[in-house]
Amino acid sequence: MIESISITNFYCFNETTKISFVAGRERNRDTDELYNGYSTQNRVNLLKMVFLYGNNGAGKSKLLLAFDILQHLVTTTRDDKMDSLPFFEFALNPYKEKSQPSEIELTYHFDGSRYRYYIKWNESVILEERLTLLKAVTEALLFERWYDFGERVVKVKYGRAMMMDGDTAYVIRTSLLRNNSLISIIASTNIYNKVLHDQLSFFRNGFELMELSDIDLGEMLPDGKMADGRELKKVILALLKSIGSNIVNFEKIPLPKRIPSALRARMKNMSDEDRQMMIELFDMAPDYAVKTYHDIGWKRPQPLDLEAQSEGTKEILRLILCMHEAISEHKTILLDDCINGIHPKTLEQLMKFYLGASEDSQLIIASQNFSNLDDKMLRRDSLRFIVKNEKGESEAKQMNLGDLHKNQNLRMQIENSEKWGVKPTIDDMILETAIREYRSEMTDFEDFLFSELF
Questions:
Q1: Residue 13: is it exposed, middle or buried by C-beta count within 10 angstroms (0-12/13-18/19+)?
Q2: What is the pLDDT of residue 133?
Q3: Considering just the CA atoms, what is the radius of gyration of the chain in Å?
Q4: The pTM is what?
Q5: How far is C-alpha 47 from the chain's CA centre?
Q6: What is the residue-wise DSSP string for 206-228?
């Protein structure tokens, strides 16, 4: 699970911005015995669900993208030292004369231990990299790596807790390119070190940036005919029933991928390139179609293709699958711009399922949907606000319990307050002027086009 992330000079984050996912001193509810909102790891209470709010363009998506870039930096092995790195520095500083490196620091919990990882890079070099083991009151350096510009070599220093043997250190020293993380070397060599293998596993599988719209329901929904899919299918159908859906069953139907004979005949006259492109298109076709069955009070449930379902229903199914993956894979899933098409009461029920079933997983959700702020399950300490100032710099804010009494309406206070940066700045005079100019200019332009044509 992720405890915090700090970002410096990355897209709209100029100065160092830290976002914590640690639970505050929110008073536990009576239902927390079943629907506990946090998981305790290494004496730290980590939130299971975190919501990121902010105005359009405030930087919510860029914050989530920082996780994705970090994952790419740490896990990708580059074969050529000249290969470029993903680098997106803050670009709106008029006083900056030359490019500055970006920095990310991640504190996380994995396999019973607590770590802090730091990386500093530019478009071509990983300048610094550091891994620390965090204990109850002390911390132990595992490794520290830096690029020596004078000698043009990568240098590494290991701490005692790393238990690094000479042979492994030699292989790393002779294999490590300036644009590869030390952790990624494990994937491209035959060496073994438990600490590095654990970190590679975490950065590969411990968190993932996803978009609900990218989830292929035909591929991801469980097949009730398979042993490992029956139980999950039961849970999904029970969840749908608990939110009032009349879907009582669904089935996955394999789709044939045979190219029609008429098309095969035409492909004979195509160039090799066009023929290969056509074959690849057929390979990309869905493997399954999904048919849902609805109880409408008739003798038997009535079938309906999943594609005919509402976008809201499909979004619910995708969110359930995301929750299942986070829980079953013990990972953090980051979701960008979702839950907008789900009814607040339905979302509340899905949150209950997730909080009740999750033990060591997280959902970090960026959204513009404020309706879930009325949810009784929502913890005030699970809200994070991304705000952009007049200089184009984003920062993160967190609600203190003293900011809002628990008996006040959370949604109304946040939507109408200037403090949290979620309320757009509205100027009706500018709008009215724009309307007049548009009507005047566009009307004259349309009259000109009409006279030219006729």
A1: buried
A2: 97
A3: 26
A4: 0.87
A5: 15
A6: SEEEE-GGG--HHHHS--TTSHH
